[in-house]
C-alpha cells in the first residue's frame, strides 16, 4: 500500500498545522496499491494526552485521492495519521458482480466468499457471528447465492471487520495545534496609556487608561494592545522625534526597557503599579476586551540585567557592551541580549519567567517585538513550553522582514503574524498577496493580522490620501483579515504628517512623547470604525480567511472579493475603490458559486455600511463608488429562495 | 540556520531523481538564519562508492533562494546534500562598509576584524598565514585600515577558511540515479520476428529477423524491441483474433510464456536457438541498434514453473490454479505468479536470474509488461539489484494504468515509462499533459517514451484519419518525446482496421497470427519516418524534453512548440496540423526567448522536412498546413547574427 501526498503536512511533519476549537481538519492523501484489488483507508486522530486513536473512514474523491475529516474540540495538540489496507471482501464483491452480470459461472467465486465470511464469523461478536453464519448458508443456497453475495446487509456486517493484517500505517504522525477562536478572529486597538491623561501635559496612568476603555469598546474592538509598560531607561534616552538629546521631561521610548526601578517584570512608576495594571485588565474584560502586552526582549543600559548579568550581553573588543545596530543605524539606548551566551539556559529560563509572570497577572496575548532578530530555536522552545501549560495563550509575531523568515516564525509556533498588508496598495498586489496567504499551504500555519498603521508605520498612502484613504484601508483590513488592528487614536483622527519627506515615521511620534488626542474632533472616524467592527461581529463570513475569493471587475482601481461560511448561510461581498480621489465605476463579473447564488434567480445585495439594498441578477452587475462619500460597499448577499408555498423571500 | 524547500527532492528523499551521464544536477534551497548575519551555502556531492564529498559554493538567487549545480559523469548513484553557515567575516565586512560610508567611527570594528583575521592565520597554510599576518598589519595602520578591510584580496584569502564550526548540514542525503544517454534519447521499433519470413506462411526465425534489420536501420531506429521470444504454451492457446478455439497451426500469443520446451530462459524453437538470438543481437549492433527484450512475468499453464513450483501460483477453492482475469475478462492461457507466496524469496531470486540470464546474452534494455499488476516492492528490489551490478541496464515500464501508479513505478526505479500520449489528441490535452510531464516535479523521475501505436493500441484517430493522421502522430511523438517508438510494420504501412467497431485491437492482430507484411508498398511511410529520425539525430534540441515550450497560435487545430539546447545553439520549432482532413492556417505568437531570437533581428526558419527556408521577424508569423501534403513543419531556427565584419549571416 502506498500512502503519499498527504495534505496538510508541513515540511514532512516537522511542524504542526493550526486550527481553532470547533474547526475540522480535512485530510487528503493519495492511497493506492499495486494490482487490481479494492482498497480502504481511514484517518486516525487523538489529542496528545489520549492513548487511543479514534478512526474515521476516508472516501475516494477521484484519481486515487482520498479524503476524510476530524473535528478538533479541545485546546492543545492533536495528532493524526492514516491507515490503509487492501479490502479482500470488497474486491471479491466487486469482481463477483461483474462476472455475474456477464453471465459467467461464479461457483468457485462463491466458495471463496463462503470461506471469507466464515472466517470473519469466527472473530466477530456473538450477534454478528450468528448473522454471518446465516449469510454463509445463503451463499451455499442455489439459486439465491449471488443475490446474497451482493446484499448490502452482508457488506455492512463485513465492513465492521476489516482485514487489517496487511494494513499500512502512514509512517508519520502529523500535528495540529488547536487555539481558541481569538487566534482566528480578533479586532485589535493599540494605544499608549501614557497619552490617556485627561489633563494636558500630565503623564497618563492605568487609571486614565481605564477611563479610555469605554471609548475603545464603543468602536467594538476586542483586544487592546499596550506598548511596553515597564520602567524606561535614562542612558542615551531619545528625545522628541527620536533626537539624541532629550529635554529633561521627555518620557523616552517604552521599548528602551528597564531602569533602577526594575525590568520586564516591573511597571513604569508613572503608569502605576502591577495592581493598577490588574485593575485595567479587569475593567477591559468588563468591556469585552482582552489586554495584549508587548514582549520586547531587549534592555536599556539601565536595565537590572546589565549589572546583574553582564554575561547575557555581547562585549566589544574595547570592553563596552554592544548596543543594537542595523548599520549604519545605531540604537545606543538599547542593548540586545546575547541568546547564545554561555549561560544561555539561565537567560532563556529568565525570559520565559517574564511571560509566566504576566500570565499570572491576567495576560493571555503577547505581541512579540522583532522576533526575527532572536534565535528561531528560542521561540520554538519558549512558545511550546508556555503553551504546554497555557494552551490559550496567543503570540503575535511583529516580524517585518523577508517572507521566508516570517513564515518560519509562524511554523515555529507564533499564533499570528503581522503582514506586508500596509504596503500592498494596488489591486494586483492585494490579490496576489492574499491569494498566497489564504489559498496556498501558507494558510495552514500563518494567520495574518492586518494593520493599516502602527506607531512605526505611517504609509505614503495614508500621508497623501486623506480621509478616503483611511476609510478604504480600514475596510480592506477589516474584511480581508479576520484579524486586524489599528494604532489609535492616530488612525481614527487621521494623523498623517510624516517626520520628513520620504519617511514612514510619524511627526511628533508617540514613541518619544506624550500626545494629547482630541478624540471628539468631528472628522473622527470612530463611528465609521465602530460600524465596520459591528459588521464583522454580526457576519461570521468575515471571521475567517479560508473562504476568501476575488471576483473580476473591469476597473483596476476597484477590487472585489467575497467571504462565506461553509454552509453559505452568511455571505459578504466587499467592493473597494482603491483611488482615494476619483469616483470609479465598473462591471463586476461575479463567480456565483462561492456566493451561494443560483445563476437563474435574482438576489439581494444589502450594503451593511449604508443600509442600501439592491436586487441583482446573474454575474454581471454595475458598481460606482465615490470616495468622498463611501469608498466601499460591504454587501451581505441574500439569495432568493422559493419557499414551500411558492412564496419568494430572501433568506 | 534553516535549509528547506530543497529542489530536487523526491518525497522527502525517499526516491532518487534521474539524470544521464554528462548532465548537471541544479539544486536550489531556501537558506537563511535568524538575525542579520551574512550566510554562505555549499552543495556537497559524491558517488555512492566515494567516501569524500566534493563541495561547490551556492549563490543567492533572490528572496533567500540559493542555487548551485554539480555534474554527473559516472553511471550509477550519486548523493548530494547541502551545508550552510553564518559568515562572520562577510557580516563584518558588509557592516564595516556601511558604517564607513556613513562616516562613523569604526575603530572598534577594525579591532574585531584584526582578531578575526589573526585567528584565521593560526589555522591557515604557511603561505596564507603569512599573507593574513600582513593584512593584520594593514588593519592596524592609520590611515589605510578601512581600505585594507574592504580589499577583495583579503576576502579571497578569508573565503578559503570559512568558519564552519556552527555550520548546519541538511538532514538528508538525496540520491541521483545516473543512466546512460539512451535512457533519455532513443528511437524504438517494435517488431515480431516470427513475421519476418520471406516466404508466405512460414514461421519467421532470428535469421529472417536479421535480414529485416537493414530495413529498420534504414529508418534510423536505434532500439529494436521484440515481444517475448520464449516457447509458447498450448493449453487454452488463443486462435486468430483472440478466439478461444485455435486452429492446429495457430502460433499462439508470445505472452503465453512457457511450454515443455522451456520457460523464460528458453527461446521458442521455431525462432531458433539462444545462439541465433545472440547472432541477431550482434547484427543489430552492427546496424547501430540495441535489442530490447520483453519481460513478462507470467506463465502459460504449460510453463515448467507450474509443475516444478505449483506453490508459486494461487490456488482456487476447487484446487485449480487461478488464471489471470480482469473481470469480466478471463485470460485462461495465462497464470499470474503469486509474488506474495510463502516461498517468495526463492521466486524473486528466480525472476531476477531471468534478467541476469539475458544480460549474459547481450541484452541491456527490458520492456516490462504490466508492471502495475506485480508488487511495487518487487520492482524496487529487482531494479536496484540489477543496476547495482549493471548500471547501464534500462527498464521501460509498460503500465497503462492510473497516473499515480505510473508515477510510483517510475519513482521505484523504472528508467522510462509508456504514457497516455496515444490518447492525447486535442491541442489542450497535449499541452496540459506534456507541461505536466516536462515542467512539474514529474520530470525529475519520469521519462516518457511515446508510442502512437502498439500491438494492443490502434487508436480511433489512426483508424479514421488516414495517412495524414499517421504522419501527424509520428511527428508529434518524435518531437514531443526524446524517446519514442512505433510498432511496425503496422505503423509505416498504416494498418488501420480494428477488430470491431469501438475496439482498439487490430483486426488480424500479429499477437495471434503470423503476418506477411508488404514492405515495399508505395504508400509506406518508411522514407518519411527515416527523414524524421535523421532530424532527431542531427538536432540535439530534440534529444531531451526539459526545454519543451509551447507557443501560442490562434487556431485550436494547430499546435506549436519548441525545444532547444541549453546554449541555444540548436533550436527546433515544430508546428503540427492536428486535423487530418482540412488545411489549417493561423498566426503564431512566438515566445522569442526560448528560441534564442533577438526581437529586433529577423531570423531564418528552415523546414527540415521540406528543406524550405523563410525569413521571419518578431513574434507574429503566419503558418498554413495542408494535411494532404505535409501535416507539420519541423523548423530549425537560425538566429541572424552580426559578425565581426558587420556581415550578416545565419549561424
The most extensive interface between chains reads: A-B, 41 and 41 residues
The whole-angstrom Rg of chain A is 31 Å
N- and C-termini, Cα separation of chain A: 48 Å
Quaternary status: homodimer
Largest sheet of chain A: 9 strands, antiparallel
Total count of strands of chain A? 31
Assign an overall shape of chain A. Answer: globular
Helical residues, percent of chain A? 25-40%
The poorly predicted ranges of chain A are 642-651
Count of helical regions of chain A? 14
CATH superfamily of the largest domain in chain A: Glycosidases
CATH class of the largest domain in chain A: Alpha Beta
CATH topology title of the largest domain in chain A: TIM Barrel
How does this model look, in words?
The structure is a homodimer of 651-residue chains. Chain A is of the alpha/beta class. Chain A has three domains: 2-178, Sandwich (Immunoglobulin-like), CATH 2.60.40.10; 187-312 and 341-541, TIM Barrel (Alpha-Beta Barrel), CATH 3.20.20.80; 543-650, Golgi alpha-mannosidase II (Immunoglobulin-like, Sandwich). Helices cover 27% and strands 25% of the residues of chain A. Chain A is built from 14 helices and 31 strands. In chain A, the strands form six sheets. In chain A, strands 23, 24, 25, 26, 27, 28, 29, 30 and 31 form a nine-stranded antiparallel β-sheet that branches. Chain A is globular. Mean pLDDT of chain A is 95; it is low at 642-651.
Amino acid at each position: 500500500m502506498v500512502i503519499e501526498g498527504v495534505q496538510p503536512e508541513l515540511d514532512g511533519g516537522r511542524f504542526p498545522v493550526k486550527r481553532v476549537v470547533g474547526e475540522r481538519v480535512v485530510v487528503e492523501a493519495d492511497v493506492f496499491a499495486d494490482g487490481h484489488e479494492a482498497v480502504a483507508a481511514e484517518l486516525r486522530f487523538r489529542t496528545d494526552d489520549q492513548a487511543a486513536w479514534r478512526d474515521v473512514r476516508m472516501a475516494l474523491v477521484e484519481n486515487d485521492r482520498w479524503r476524510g475529516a476530524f473535528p478538533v474540540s479541545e485546546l492543545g495538540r492533536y495528532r493524526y495519521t492514516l491507515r490503509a489496507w487492501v479490502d479482500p471482501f470488497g474486491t471479491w464483491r466487486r469482481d463477483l458482480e461483474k462476472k455475474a452480470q456477464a453471465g459467467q459461472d461464479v461457483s468457485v467465486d462463491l466458495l471463496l466468499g463462503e470461506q471469507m465470511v466464515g472466517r470473519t464469523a469466527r472473530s466477530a461478536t456473538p450477534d454478528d457471528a450468528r448473522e454471518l453464519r446465516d449469510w454463509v448458508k445463503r451463499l451455499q443456497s442455489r439459486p439465491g447465492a449471488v443475490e446474497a453475495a451482493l446484499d448490502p446487509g452482508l457488506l455492512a456486517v463485513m465492513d465492521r471487520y476489516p482485514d487489517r493484517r496487511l494494513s499500512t500505517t502512514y509512517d508519520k504522525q502529523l500535528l495540529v495545534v488547536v487555539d481558541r477562536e481569538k487566534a482566528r478572529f480578533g479586532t485589535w486597538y493599540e494605544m499608549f496609556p501614557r497619552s490617556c491623561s485627561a489633563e494636558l501635559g500630565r503623564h497618563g496612568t492605568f487609571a486614565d487608561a481605564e477611563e479610555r476603555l469605554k471609548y475603545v469598546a464603543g468602536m467594538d474592538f476586542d483586544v487592546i494592545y499596550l506598548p511596553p509598560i515597564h520602567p524606561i531607561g535614562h542612558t542615551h534616552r531619545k528625545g522628541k522625534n527620536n533626537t539624541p538629546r532629550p529635554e529633561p521631561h521627555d518620557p523616552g521610548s517604552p521599548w528602551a526597557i528597564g531602569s533602577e526601578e526594575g525590568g520586564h517584570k516591573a511597571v513604569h512608576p508613572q503608569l502605576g503599579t502591577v495592581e493598577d495594571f490588574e485593575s485595567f485588565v479587569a475593567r477591559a474584560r468588563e468591556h469585552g476586551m482582552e489586554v495584549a502586552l508587548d514582549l520586547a526582549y531587549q534592555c536599556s543600559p539601565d536595565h537590572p540585567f546589565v549589572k546583574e548579568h553582564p554575561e547575557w550581553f555581547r562585549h566589544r573588543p574595547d570592553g563596552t557592551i554592544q548596543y543594537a545596530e542595523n548599520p549604519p543605524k545605531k540604537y545606543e539606548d538599547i542593548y540586545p541580549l546575547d541568546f547564545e551566551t554561555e549561560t544561555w539556559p539561565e537567560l532563556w529560563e529568565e525570559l520565559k519567567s517574564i511571560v509566566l509572570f504576566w500570565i499570572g497577572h491576567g495576560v493571555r496575548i503577547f505581541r512579540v517585538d522583532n522576533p526575527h532578530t532572536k534565535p528561531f530555536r528560542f521561540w520554538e522552545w519558549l512558545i511550546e513550553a508556555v503553551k504546554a501549560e497555557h494552551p490559550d495563550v496567543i503570540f503575535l509575531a511583529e516580524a517585518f522582514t523577508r517572507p521566508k523568515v516570517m513564515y518560519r516564525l509562524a511554523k515555529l509556533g507564533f499564533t499570528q503574524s503581522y503582514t506586508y498588508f500596509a504596503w500592498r496598495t494596488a489591486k494586483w498586489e492585494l490579490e496576489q498577496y492574499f491569494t498566497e496567504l489564504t489559498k496556498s499551504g501558507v494558510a495552514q500555519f500563518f494567520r495574518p493580522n492586518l494593520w493599516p498603521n502602527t506607531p512605526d508605520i505611517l504609509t505614503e498612502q495614508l500621508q497623501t490620501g486623506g480621509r478616503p484613504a483611511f476609510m478604504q484601508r480600514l475596510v480592506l483590513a477589516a474584511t480581508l483579515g479576520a484579524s486586524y488592528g489599528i494604532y489609535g487614536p492616530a488612525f481614527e483622527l487621521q494623523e498623517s504628517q510624516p517626520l520628513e519627506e520620504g519617511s514612514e515615521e510619524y511627526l511628533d511620534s508617540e514613541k518619544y512623547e506624550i500626545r494629547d488626542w482630541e478624540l471628539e474632533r468631528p472628522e473622527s472616524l470612530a463611528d465609521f470604525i465602530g460600524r465596520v467592527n459591528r459588521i464583522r461581529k454580526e457576519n461570521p463570513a468575515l471571521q475567517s480567511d479560508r473562504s476568501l475569493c476575488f471576483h473580476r471587475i473591469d476597473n483596476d482601481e476597484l477590487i472585489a472579493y467575497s467571504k462565506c461560511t461553509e454552509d453559505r448561510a452568511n455571505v459578504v461581498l466587499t467592493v473597494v475603490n482603491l483611488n482615494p480621489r476619483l469616483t470609479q465605476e465598473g462591471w463586476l463579473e461575479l463567480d456565483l458559486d462561492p456566493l451561494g447564488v443560483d445563476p437563474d434567480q435574482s438576489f439581494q445585495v444589502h450594503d451593511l455600511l449604508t443600509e442600501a439594498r439592491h436586487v441583482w441578477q446573474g454575474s454581471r452587475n454595475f458598481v460606482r463608488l465615490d470616495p468622498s462619500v463611501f469608498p466601499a460597499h460591504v454587501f451581505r448577499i441574500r439569495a432568493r429562495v422559493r419557499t414551500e408555498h411558492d412564496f419568494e423571500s430572501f433568506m
